[in-house]
Amino acid sequence: MTKNDPVRFVLAIHNHQPVGNFGWTIEQAYQDSYLPFLDVFSQPKYASIKMSLHNSGCLMDWLEINHPEYLDRLAKLVAEERVEILGGTYYEAILGMLPSRDRIGQIQRFTNWLTSRLGAKIRGMWMPERVWEASFVRDIVSAGIEYTIVDDFHLKKAGLKDEQLYGYVVTEDDGAVMGIFPGSENFRYWIPFHDPQESIQYMQKIRQTHPHAILVFGDDGEKFGTWPETHQHVYGYGWLEKFFDALLENADDIRCVTLAEAYDEVTPLQKLYLPDCSYREMTEWSLPAERLTEYENAIQILPQNDPQWNMLKTFITGGNWRNFKVKYPETNEMYARMMYVSRRLMNLEKRVTQNACETPEGEISRPQLMEMLEEARGHLYRGQCNCPYWHGAFGGVYLPVLRDAIYRHLITADLILDKIKLALDGSLPRITKEVRDFDFDHHDEIRIANDFLVAWISPQRGGTLYELDLLRIPHNLLATLARRKEAYHQKIVQYHNASHEEDVSSIHQRVVFKQKGLEKFLQYDSYLRKSMTDLFFSPGTTLDRLFYGEILPQSDFAAKEYTASAEILDNACEVILRTSGKVIAQDSTVHPIQLTKILTLPVNSCSLRIRYHLENLPHDAVFHFGSEFHFSGLPANCKDRFFYNYNPHEKNPERHTLGHLGTRLDLVDATQLGIIDEWLNLDIHFQVSRPARMWTYPVETVSNSEGGFEMVHQSVAVVPNWFVQGDENGKWETEIEISFPSDTL
Hints:
Blueprint: E1 7-15, H1 23-41, E2 51-55, H2 57-66, H3 68-79, E3 83-85, H4 100-118, E4 124-126, H5 136-142, E5 147-151, H6 152-157, E6 169-173, E7 176-183, H7 185-190, H8 196-209, E8 214-220, H9 230-236, H10 239-249, E9 254-257, H11 259-265, H12 280-285, H13 289-301, H14 307-312, H15 324-327, H16 329-354, H17 366-382, H18 400-425, E10 432-436, E11 445-449, E12 453-458, E13 464-470, E14 475-476, H19 489-497, E15 533-537, H20 543-547, E16 563-568, E17 572-584, E18 590-602, E19 607-615, E20 623-632, E21 641-645, E22 656-660, E23 665-677, E24 682-705, E25 708-724, E26 732-739
Parallel strand pairs: 1-2, 1-8, 1-9, 2-3, 4-5, 5-7
Antiparallel strand pairs: 6-7, 10-11, 11-12, 12-13, 13-14, 15-20, 16-17, 17-18, 18-19, 19-26, 20-25, 21-22, 21-23, 23-24, 24-25, 24-26
Helix pairs in contact: 2-3, 4-5, 16-17, 16-18, 17-18
């Protein structure tokens, strides 16, 4: 080998901020990572260093508004052929959760934007979270992409050894062929945390044994300044300049190229078909919590430095990314809602494009309808951003602001599609109902809607209301999350149980607690945190005992399957849900009870009514019954978000503040309760026909994030409850009304 045959090194940086993230958070990442990295890279002395760069479309949209000068600088670097821009799905959607039409559409839309704004020729793409399935190939190639990056872990799972990874492979599906570059896991852990010379020496060693070798670093740009303690390390202590200097000093051995140059200059190593996979940690996180704990415990007892273990671990993997939709049913709800919008858009687009009739004068023209379709598609694509659809070492699905953003865009897309349908049909029904399997579980759900609200009901899961869209805002008040066990919770318990004399740091490397006493809040729900959840409480149940998880329901109504029927009446839509079961009374006797609840959505009202009928109640038994409701996206500990009460009989009732939305309230003989969120412009009136004990409490989860373990406020629980005793006919009933007035704020 001669000095004219250096290793080709590809520095591929991926920058991303999710849809719905706080502007100040993105600005901080810009100042800490994106801008200083570009400042160092752009120095004239590093003119021979090239890179492939992917900024997600979510981030690009933000940069265009807030820092267009950054994009101007990128365009200049693209013109100088120092930077190759990588495309991908516009809003960083994982391909495995998209129908084929949206995979191609997202990629092509982003390619068009990048070409127009930066003058870039897009040939390669970033694979979101490196989630890979063989069927992606045909859609990626159809969208105009030639190659992508995954982890070398993917290729090892397909049977390659380390010494077979210093290049790229080609793969095929349905006759479509594309290239796949393996990103080095070694680089992922070394850069920028180890001394630059470690990476340099590694590449020099590979050069000695592998002619025409290609080595790829492909990972998050946020680790260059945004991750904890990295900004000082990378820029204050000069790690990045030292790394670039080392590359220049060893230019005879290492040549910095883009993915496009490597793809054009070197022939592929071989043809290879990859298994469904992601990076190693992601496959582990997708496992159920109990199995993940077993997996981690098994790994710990194996000899990490044993050569046989190094050989064996290649064949050990976790689960499939799609099973996040099983691990977190709330993720599946978002996915199903997204698919509903996607299919609806597809069907309306067919009607618009296939309708050859001229639009009547004064109505929306076909070009205008096409513009509206594209606007709806943009919101749909934003609603496909992957971040809240999974959870690993970072917040993900645990972050309410990200879940809320997904629903906000999906609801907005639906509203635009309503306008298109109105233009096509001339009118829309004032109230609608649909009954079908919306969430792909082989059971029918019910969707009812008027001009103000859309309610989604699951007869299979306790006859609960699992999504409630307030169209005026737009906001899903049931974008909730249940408290569930996570494998990393054992670290919290171990830390709490460790004595002060123990060296807990050796057990809990990289464990940071953002709050004290988190072990007290490791509580797990036996049912999803939705609304119209029917609960019978054991003797001695109090608000505090319920809040701390010391009380379990005395029946399984919360998880029962209800029979259901839905009917559109003259002025309303009515859903009737029925079931029966055995319930433990306050004297510990067990009795069979029949429960019927009737949900009514009036035609011209922003309100819901729920009537409860309990039957077959014995005269000599008392039951503690409650109906649990949740309201999400309403943070606690904020002055502009609070509980209040009022006199519902007054024309302009005066509000009496009862505390912020993290307050535990125990109201006796209450008939009403109000909830205000001034930031959302939201007012909720909650009324019951029978005086009730009214409990409120926050549902808070303990989750992991970049900054450490933290408590996250997920939803506000409102639980009207009664001590129930049957009348002479063994019956008891009450009515609950929830309304959302828009003229009281």
